[in-house]
Amino acid sequence: MSESIFNLTWLIPLPTALAFFAIILFANPKKRLSSKIAVGGVIIAWILSWAVAIMFFVNPEFTEQPFDLAVPWIPMGNIVFHMGVAVDAVTAGMLFMVGFVLTMIFIYSTGYMSFPGHLDPEKYPDAAKEGLDPRYSRFFAYISLFATGMLGLVVADNLLMLFIFWEIMGLCSYLLIGFWFDKSYPDPKQITPKAAGLKAFLTTRVGDVLFMMGLIFLFIHAGDLNFQNIFANQEFLHELSTTTVNLPFFGAVTWAGLISMLIFWGAIGKSAQFPLHVWLPDAMEGPTPVSALIHAATMVSAGVYLIVRMSPLFSAAAHGGSGVMMFVAFIGAFTALFAATIAVAQKDIKKVLAYSTISQLGYMFAALGIGAWVAAIIHLLIHAFFKSLLFMGSGSVIHGVHHGHEHAHAHGHGEGGHEEYFDPQDMFNMGGLLKRMPITGWTFIIGGASLSAFPLITAGFWSKDEILAHAWADGHMAVYWTLAAGAFLTAFYTFRQIFLTFFGSPRTEAAEHAPESVRSMTWPLVALAFFALFGGFVAVPVDFPVVGGLASDFLAKLMEMQGEFYGLHVAPARFDWTPALISMTLALSGIVVAWLVYGWKPLKAKQSDPLRRWLGPVYTVLENKYYFDELYYFIAVRPTLWLASFFYLFDRGVIDRIVNWVGAFNRWLARTLRRWIDEYIIDGAVNGVGLVTTWTGAVVRLIQTGQAQNYLLILLLSVVILLLLIPFGS
Amino acid sequence: MNVLEILRLLAPEFILLITGFAVIGVDLARRRQDEGKTAATVAVMGLLLAALASVWLYLGHPGEIVLFTMAIDVYGLFFKTAAFIGVALVIIASVNFMAGRSKYLGEFYALLVFAALAISVVVSASNLILIYIGIEFLSITSYILAGFLRGDKRSEEAAIKYFLYGASAGAILLFGLSILYGVTGTTDLATIGDLLLRSRSAHWLGLVALMMALAGIGYKASLVPFHQWAPDTYDGAPTPVSAFLSTASKAAGFAVLGRVILTAFPQLQPDWTQILGAIAVLTMFLGNLTALKQKSVKRMLAYSSIGQAGYILLGLVAVNQSGNFGGMNGLMIYLFGYIFTNVGAFLLLLAIEQKSGGSTDISQFKGLATRSPALALIMAMFMLSLAGVPPTVGFLGKFYVFAAVMNQQMLVLGALAAVNTIIAAFYYLNVIRHMYFSESEVEGGVMASRGLMTVLVVNAVMVLAIGIFAQFFMTWVNNSVSMIIANGF
Amino acid sequence: MVGQILFIFIAVVTLLMALGVVVARNLFHAALFLVGVFFGVATLFILLEAEFLAMAQIVIYIGAIATLIVFAIMLSRGMMGKHLGKYNKQWYFAGGAMIFFFGLVSWLLVKMPFAPVSAEAPADAIQQIGSGFVGHYVVPFEVASVLLLVALVGAIMLARERNS
Amino acid sequence: MDLLRSSVLSLIVFLPVVGSIIVALMPKEKEDLIKKFAIWWSLIPLLLTIWVAIDYAMNFMHGNQMAYQVKLAWIPSIGVNYHVGADGLSVPLLFLTALLTTLGLYYSARVIRKRVKEFFLLFLLLSTGMFGVFVSLDLILFYVFWEIGLVPMYFLIGIWGNPKDRPQYAAIKFFLYTLAGSIFMLLAMIGVYLSTGTFDILQAAQTGVWTNAPMFATLSFWAFFIAFAIKVPSFPFHTWLPDAHTAAPTAGSVILAGVLLKLGAYGILRVLLSLFPGQFAQFGWIVAALGVIGIVYGAFVSLAQTDLKRLIAYSSVSHMGYIMLGIGAVAVALNMKGTEGAAESAAMAFNGASLQMFMHGIITGALFFLVGVVYERAHTRDLKVFGGLSAVVPVYYATMMFAGFASLGLPGLAGFWAEFFTFRGAFGIVPWLAVIGVIGIVITAAYILYRIIQSLFLGEYDPKRWTHWTTVFGEHADGPTDMALFEKVTLWPLVILMIILGLWPTPLLMYFNEAATNILSNLHF
Amino acid sequence: MTVPLSWYLIFATALFSLGFFGVLSRRNAVAVLMGVELMLNAVNVNLVAFWRYLTPTDLSGQIFVVFVFTVAAAEAAVGLALMISIYRTRKTINVEEINALKH
């Protein structure tokens, strides 16, 4: 029976794909219908993926021989490339998480996508009447395509198919971030959705290109890209990690090292790690379900999933002596801390969550870097739950504040014309919303607690603690202490956010009148809150004194067995008190400090952030995200545009003129193009043909004088020359 | 060699002689009322009959000397046929054009017939005296034809210039021939060839004679140092005469040059290859580059015909034994195609001149494609053939000439010729550009008389037909070449 | 020896007269000098024992061509009055080129290794010429006749008074 | 059946000429009769090419010899004969030519209003030239069809180009470029005859060209290569392309970009690879280097463009760079016979180059049609004038998104496979050049999204920015109107092809793959 | 027979050069024609000298000269006719002024 269920895996990405085509071809005009099609499609996919996942959990013996169904797809030279689907423990885990989270977000967005603030209703009368976004159906088409991409990536059995779905997700993120393409802000410095979309696509594209190079090198050496074929046979991995290639300034680098480094850069691009992180915060310009979907749960985690898939290669590279694992760990840890510091100083509710995502992904990469394969996967799954919860929570808050603002505005409080721009996402315009929006409030608090790893009861504690424990146990003290500092800051900014938005007194009329969101938005929040709390027991280490025995951490064991199959000797972290205690104290102290600054004396309206006074210049640096956007614009964007215009001038000016020098029509060109005449006279000498034709013109005038006797003279001279040739010539 | 045999072998010459007199007679009989129409028809009939006779003779593959001085062989017959057809086409097309322009139209067509006779004589002359008398006969008829429009200043100026140049060049040619006679003691080309082969000492004397003869014959083929009369004369002379001069008489020039060099001076090949090669390059470059600068299409065609002469000379420069790429077959097929194309191009100018009252400036051609598409298409085809774009005969000619040049490993010459094709392509395209792309400055379609139209269509069809059915014409050319090459080397 | 002196005398006289043709300011004198040159050449022919040619030279050249030229001069007399310079601008250059040409060609001709045959000129030269015209060179003969006809027709057509 | 087999190629080649003659005979006034006739007439070669594709796949797939060969004497005295044949490489390109010709005619039927009869006549003549090049196996026949293809294109650019873009200058530049190259190619062809005694490509390949005189071999190689490189166009010889494209009418630039550029690449693969393997191996790295420069240079220059059509023209230069990189890689692989994996990488590179030929054909063809769509309405191509059209013309937006993303090589659409295979081959053989080429991918994404999608579709749509809009049929309109039915019918086959070939490239790849294995095995790889 | 052949040749070349000089430098068209006649005469002398010294028995030299006579006559006739007709239209016989057709 189990075999037949797995045969359905290739069906998983199909429903959402069919939904996408159905919407754009047929259901485009009818908004309600297209949203129903999309949600229906994702529910089917959810059911299928849960069926496959649970079937896998139920009989773990599949970890020895993971399921693989492939079909010959593309002839390449004399071999045929097979494409197909595969299910192993990691896929099962991911399917479980992705299916559920996608469905929640689809349902949530049916409510969220109401008529947006920045469009004036007269231009879109029918959409305004229905109260929906004019391009409602187009939104559902895009997120269905995105769902196809994510599901396809998870079930793919080879790196090429993974890469294809990887890029389709990149496309969808571009479309969805730039969804409100006609939205613009009064402040020119603030990035508009269309620019954010472009920035996201190009930054991830840089990563993808390096990923493709890695993929191609792997394909050249392995001849095949199927995960099980490559990573299961050890002598291939050994051969890969011993043969070296010398690069200009890296010296001799093993192939395994080079390929894994290139693939890691793909992950850096997609999961917005340190150098290529700039696009994620700006991606918040997209609608909130998109941020939740793409930038919390699925797409960014795809990067981690890729490295998890590639870890046999990474570990082979590490054995071969290349420092790629250390590099991954370093990038992960550094990003974790770096993002956390920025999150502290953000005033936009979604920007805080964006930086927190970057930081949490940093944790996962750090885990992978130090070899904590299982901890990384588990943190990935659990983080997806509480982070999508937080995003959706913030979405419903923004929705509420926006309605509150409309409400207040409609009652004549606003002075006539549109007063200066009111930002519904700015936390300092909120306050005391817990009373107004109880469900959103409490679910948000649960999510926040889980994010900041509130000891014992939240899932976040168990998954993050796992990573810290591994770092402590394996003696990576540098990584441990950065992650610990990160943990403290995470707790601090999360609860700063909670206190600013939900506690204290509402600082603007909008906050006062913010209504609770529609049921279709709040219900998914509750479902996700359940997992944010109880999801963690999946990862509770067995020998934890009290709770240990209660829930069997079957997932952790499953992952360990799968690790064995891929030759990753993953030692289970024995529970050790000291790291657990340190992380508990850090989390609690973070919360207390946040309470002291924001909860104890809630801020009044128009009161600036107390941190600004204490940190002063540091605060402004953090607020401007260490000026990375300006830096990248200066070292990447401007030189490219300058180079482009330089090449274009080179093309029109130099090459064309060289060509004219060769082509005989320069004279004709001068005659027809008057404005070129000065250039023709100025460098007449330069273009030879122009010269040749003027010279022959002169010569012709000289000899073709019309005088018959001149001709005869030349006739005589030619005969004389011919005669002279004889004695001297031959 | 009984009389019947002579009559048969010299049939074309006799036919033309009779036609000439018949034309004058008919014109007198009609007492000049019908503007030379009947005279023209008689002339055309005679020419076509002569052409038929020479083709019929050709099929018999003769190869013998008749009456001591006339070498009736396939080489000569090929040029005769080409020339006769060329002149016939000129006459048909020019009837309408010449109608109102002169009273002596009977004489005009008679002169053209006699010019054709002169060509047929000189083409198969294998004796110094006959060569000289033939060339002078052709020249004198051409002087008169050039100056035919008595009142017209341009036509007279063209004639006088042509006369002065022709007379001096003729004198130099004569001087050369006299030296040749002095050196060898005989006037028969074949014997001169054998004598020069045997005696080493006469080697460079032969060269002196050749150089002077080159001037005399070269001027007929408008090769560069001796070309200066051509632009003025072509421009000034009545267009049918320019058509005649630039095609049939040029073909005669090349035929004589070929025969003299290949029969009399075969062993001097290394010397005259270099000299002729240099002349060919000079001719191509000067012809093409000056044509670039021309405003009047007629003058442009004049210079382009000089440029084309450079290409044709290449065939002679790269002459060699190999069957297919022997150079001479390139020269002949190129010339054959060139006659049709250039006659066509000049005659098309007739229609333009008639409409614009004498001006052949390029602006007359602007927007011709919309005004009279048929003429524009034909002119475009001629231009493309002159530029050497397949599948026209121009390409075929250029292909064989290039092949011969490559066969002789004259890479530099080949490269220079290729560059010239590009330069030439530009001003040929320029005409097409004016016709098809720019707006017309002049209103009203260009009216071509029925006679002119038929000639143009015939030419256009021939230009394409030779290009496509190349094999048929190439066999015809190839074995006429084998004749001249065999006995020469 | 006598022949040589005679030859030199005739040659020098003829060349002087030729120079006269070229240099004479008045066209009439030029025509007269031309006749003198023709006569000189005729005497040379006699010296070379080509009597028929000498006679033909006198009849054709002096009789026909010279007179024709005189007629032409008479017809274009109107222009005589202006007496503008007899040479055009390029005569210096032409003179130099001609001297060089003369030197070069005569040097070439002198170097030619001719082997003069000391045979007698045939007595019946005229008969042989006659038989030559109708025998070996019958074709050039016919062509020459047609040439003369064409020249005749052309000259009349070109030079006729325009009556209408 | 075998009668049809032996005559099918000649039918494909000469039917368009017959069509153009029939059009010539039709009266000038009956424009819609001419249009209908031309479109239906061009369907016949399309159906024939489809039949050839199917028939070839079914029963000629694994024989390593040219299918549908016909050899008739044309000029026997010098061994020139009408020798045509098709193999895996030419069958898809024939289909591409027929498809683009029919679509071009169908599109132009409603757009061309000036001198209709001449347009259709020349267009059919042009397709003969293109078909001829793809099927001819005799050098002179190749040359004749090569030039025949040149003249109608010259007229198409010159007469129907819009006056603002100097069509005459562009036309003459186009003609002279190609002529300059082809004249030297003619000399080289004669060289081939002199050294091997035949003009037939297959025989000459067996006997080996200029085996005794390496200097001539190199000269002939460069003569051929420059002629083809001008047509491709590869880097230094490309300056004619932007002018020709911007000046040409929509259908003209579709055919020019879709097929005419492929003549050069096809010529290299068919003629150069088989006649001069030695020299090609020796200079292969230069070809690859030019390709890479082409990719990066083309991409950067496109980034600087503000005229939509000129941008797409430069993007063609960049995309054709991939083909040169692929071909260069194959060439370099020729003298890497020893190393393992070289054969496989060479096959991949060959597949990549030929795939790119087909994919670039349909993608850039679609892009130029789309430019036509907007140009017919706005009568300007300056990108600064548009903005926010996505909301106003959704169907046009969707189609342009498909074409744009296919062009930047998004996996799941056609463009990706060509790039993937090319780089898979190139990385195996010339890794350092391929690394530079990869930069091109990012810049391509940049200029397509930033210049085309961004300035055309996104942002605020304000009607005041551009006022003189018209509908595609010329009546005045106050804003951009969405795609008419005929435009949809023209574009959607291409979009569907992009999607299908993007997901499952095998139907096309099996031909190229088979051709790759055959040609490389002929070079005893 | 005492006069060596080369003397005749030199004389002929001298006469030829003078004639050519006349053609090149005289303004009046008729004078130019005279120059041409001189050149032809020079060549006749040349021919006869060759006949006399090299092949006295074969008369083709003399026959050649006769043909030269006919050509000279025809040329003179046509030339003068042309000059007269030009004189009538342009009232000048000066070669330099006849240069309307140029480059």
Which helices and strands occur, and which strands form pairs?
The complex is a heteropentamer of chains A (730), B (489), C (164), D (525) and E (103).
Chain C: H1 2-23, H2 27-47, H3 51-75, H4 91-111, H5 125-134, H6 138-159
Chain D: H1 2-25, H2 31-59, E1 67-75, E2 80-86, H3 90-111, H4 116-135, H5 139-160, H6 167-196, H7 201-207, H8 214-231, H9 240-247, H10 250-275, H11 277-303, H12 308-334, H13 342-378, H14 389-392, H15 394-407, H16 414-429, H17 431-457, E3 469-470, E4 476-477, H18 485-503, H19 506-522
Antiparallel strand pairs in D: 1-2, 3-4
Chain E: H1 5-25, H2 29-54, H3 60-90
Helix pairs in contact in E: 1-2, 2-3
List the uncertain runs of chain A: 413-418, 666-688
Mind summarizing the main beta sheet of chain D? 2 strands, antiparallel
| Biggest contact | C-E, 89 and 76 residues
Strand content of chain A: under 5%
Envelope shape of chain D: globular
Q: Strand order, biggest sheet of chain D? A: 1-2
| Mean pLDDT score of chain D | 88
Number of alpha- plus pi-helical segments of chain A: 32
Radius of gyration of chain D, in angstroms, nearest whole number: 22 Å
Helix content of chain D: over 70%
How helical, in percent, are the residues of chain A?
55-70%
Largest sheet descriptor of chain A: 2 strands, antiparallel
| Count of extended strands of chain D | 4
Total number of beta strands of chain A: 4
Report what the structure shows.
The complex is a heteropentamer of chains A (730), B (489), C (164), D (525) and E (103). Chain A has helices spanning 2-7, 14-27, 31-58, 89-112, 125-130, 136-155, 159-177, 193-222, 227-232, 234-242, 255-270, 279-282, 288-297, 299-319, 324-344, 349-369, 373-410, 433-436, 438-451, 459-473, 477-502, 509-512, 519-534, 554-565, 577-599, 610-615, 617-623, 628-662, 666-672, 677-682, 688-703, 708-729; strands at residues 67-76, 79-87, 244-247, 251-254. Chain A is mainly alpha-helical and 730 residues long. In chain A, strand 3 and strand 4 form a beta hairpin. Chain B is built from 20 helices and 2 strands. Chain E is elongated, with a radius of gyration of 17 Å. The N and C termini of chain E lie far apart (54 Å). In chain E, helix 1 (5-25) packs antiparallel against helix 2 (29-54) and helix 2 (29-54) runs antiparallel to helix 3 (60-90). Classes of the chains: A mainly alpha (730), B mainly alpha (489), C mainly alpha (164), D mainly alpha (525), E mainly alpha (103). Chains C and E meet through helix 1, helix 2, helix 3, helix 4 and helix 5 of C and helix 1, helix 2 and helix 3 of E.
